[in-house]
Input
Amino acid sequence: MWYYTEKQETVKNFFAQIWGAQMIQCKDCEFYETGPDGRRVFKCDPFSNIKEPECLAKWQLLRLDALVAAHRGLLSWYERMAPMQDQIFKYVQRELDDINEAERWKVPDEDDDDDKEKDDYV
Output
């Protein structure tokens, strides 16, 4: 099922003007239904029951619109997760700094090595 917006209706009319051919209107198609909430529902399948080449172009527009909507949803989810992600990064950085500080006694300081080398040459 595909849902159709008014913006897509405008795009469809634009393509109809460009191509100059009178294409079948979706509202006249047997695969078109109006849902109980007034939304347009399309039950056409581009692989089995497409009527005109323009139907494929319309179907592609519908899918592209759905893809853009999904991408916008993903971006809004990332925006909601960003503060928590920053907190996690800070916590992990603190933990790594604590581990490095705890293991510092195992590794000799570079400053101590430089002082010993200077003393050996004097």
User: Anything to note?
Assistant: The chain has a mean pLDDT of 80. The chain has two domains: 2-79, 83-121. Residues 83-121 form one domain. The longest helix spans residues 53-102.
